[in-house]
Amino acid sequence: MAAKLFSACFGRKGCRKDSPDNEAKVHTANAQDPASGEEQRKGDPVLVELFTSQGCATSPEAELLISRLGRGELPDDAPPVIILAYHVEYWDYLGWKDPFGSMLWTARQKAYVEALQQDTIYTPQVVVQGRAECFGTNEEALMAEISKAQQFSGPTMQATFERKTPETLQVSLSGALRTKVDGKGMDIMVALYENGLVTEVSSGENKGQVMKNDFVVRVLEKMCTVRDVSAKKTVSGTVNFNLWDGFDSSKCGIVVFLQNPSMQNFGCQQFQLPDDL
Question: Rounded distance, CA 271 to CA 253, Å?
């Protein structure tokens, strides 16, 4: 489905170039699931972002496709991918209010519409590396964009996780970006996502369906903006996430990605949260 354009903006936080000094008990993690030798030969992961809605009749098919790709069900010659799914809210008026929908994700999609010089905002839309887009149910087109996408060396961050209160999660990151950043700067973005979400839809275009959603972005924060940083220099920072009712760390992970002012991705890294966080 297509809709007229919307306007909004978001983003904040700060960073430093020293590792945080934290004496409290924390959970520490390296990147999720170290890649096999074959995966390493395929290169660094490609960031794939889906804009979707439970109120859109064509989105469930795209959700299934994206979930498959996120589980690693890719052609042998395809590079690895990291998936993020943003639920927009502009189809809520059709009769079903998406419980994961947010105006922030509509704003992010609008920013891509402008960056990619489009004139229509629609679902399901997939954006690859912030440089190309296609209809979310077109598997052939999506795989073509993933296969030809420019790959970048992802960050080599170490992450520590701390629940200072039941309602918050603090994530501290430290490591090299593996990408040289010039004076124009780039943002280090950190997304907190959730898998295994099941919703019984009782109205709207998907009435009667049981929706299964993975890689659903619940919170997205800008850790910091970096400028004039070498690829090997250690960058450190902290983000604080406000959590939702029913938060279950065993179903959640974070994605760290480097984004320039034109919304293009220059490397990404994924972590699974500890089960007992």
Answer: 5
